[in-house]
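User: I'm designing a mutation panel for Cytochrome P450 and want to avoid disrupting the core. Could you give me a predicted structure to guide residue selection? Please restate the sequence first so the numbering is unambiguous.

Assistant: Good idea. Sequence first, for numbering, then the predicted structure tokens:
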Amino acid sequence: MNYKEIKEVKGLPLLGSILDYKSDALSLFLNAARENGDICAIRMGPERIIFVNNPDWVAEILAKRIDFFVKSPSYRELELLLGQGMVTTEGEVWKKQRDNARHAFTISSLNTLIAPIKDIVTDFSHNTVLDGHQRDIFKDMLDLSMNIALKTLFGQSSSDISRYSVSIALENASDYVIKRLEAIIKLPPHIPTFSALKFRKEKSVLDRQVIEIIKNHDSHGGKDCLLNMILENETDHDEIKDQLLTFFFNVLRNNCIRSHLDILFHFSL
């Protein structure tokens, strides 16, 4: 398919589909796929984004044609939180980070995670008191997600770090970055606005906790976790920290994971 043949989703002059994205992004993408098929273009203000909805094409892009595609300039906003992690990097740096991390996603590596995940879920089920009182299932599933993330990604239990401080700091910091990513007009991040100062505070909490995770790993020497794979192939302290923040962000900010856990928990009652 020639680039000029790609259909474009109808939007407003100058703004494109950015208002639809801010009000209901899921509906925008579903309608775009339904009306235009496997590939289309979506205008977001001055940017023209190519939306690929065919999983085989996505796999080919990531595996064979990544050099022909660039990430949106808006992704630079994520560097405020994630630094130079896989979400924000491109080219040879991204390829190196992907190669370092993919060893953790072989069948044999993933099989080693089944037992600890089962233990965490079983322990959660046994310790969750259902005595007729209302429970915040979303919060419960967030705690469960964090326990699983800490064990499988970093080989540690929730008692090793301040689980509450991490979840709150990540939630607040990522909200700030995502709002900047979606904003049409934004101030430079170094200007000391209230939201920028709050973000810096939350980011410092995350940085301290990630450093603590690395120290705990060095002390206990966990093997069956993603952190161990990264440490085996990476020596730069800042790159390790950025990679850990990236994986933490992807796991704990993924509302789909928490929502599916909510549904599964309700059906298991």
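For picking mutation sites, this is relevant: The radius of gyration is 20 Å. The longest helix spans residues 194-220.
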